[in-house]
Protein: TRAP transporter small permease protein
Organism: Pseudovibrio exalbescens
Amino acid sequence: MSETEKLKELQHQVADGAIPEAGLLGRLVVKLGMVFAIGIVLSALILFYEVIMRYVFNSPTVWAHETVVFLSAIAFIFGGLYAAALNRHIRVVLIYDTLGPRLRRAFDVIISAVCMISSGFFAWASWQSVKRAVWTPTGDIHIETSGSAWNPPYPGMMKVFLLVILVVLAVQFFVLAINYARRKVED
C-alpha cells in the first residue's frame, strides 16, 4: 500500500471510524461503540459509589459488583466486533507487511473468510449455551440468574449478547471478505 493510499485510508477512518471495506455494518458498529465506552465509565462510577458506601457509610450495596462485571463483560465482548470493523484485529504482521498489494488483498480475503467461519462455529457453540440459559427443560422462558443475594439475570443476558455479537461478527467478516475481494489493487 502506497503512502497516499495509507493516508486516504487513515483520513477515511478518522472521518467515519470503520474501514471502508467494513461497509454500513462497520460504521454502525463504530457508532454503537460509544454506548459501551459509556458503560465502562458507568462501571467506574459504580465502583466509586460502592467504595464510598462501603467505607464511608458502612452500607455496601448488593448490586454494584455484579453490575460492574456485567457492564465490563459486555464491553469486552463488543470489543471484538469493534476491532473487526476498525481492522484492528490480531495479524502476524511479520509476514503480512512484506506482501505485495495483490497478495495482501488475497490474504485479507482469506483471513476474513477464516474469521467468518470461526465466528460462525463460536456462534453455534454460544447457541448451545443460550438454549440452557434462556429456556427451562419444559420449554418455558426463564433467563439464567446469578444465584446471589441480588440474583440478577446477568449471566443469561450475557450469553444472549455473546450469541448476537458472534452472529454479527460472522456477518461483518463476510462483508469484509466480499469487499476485500472487490477492492481494486494498484501495482
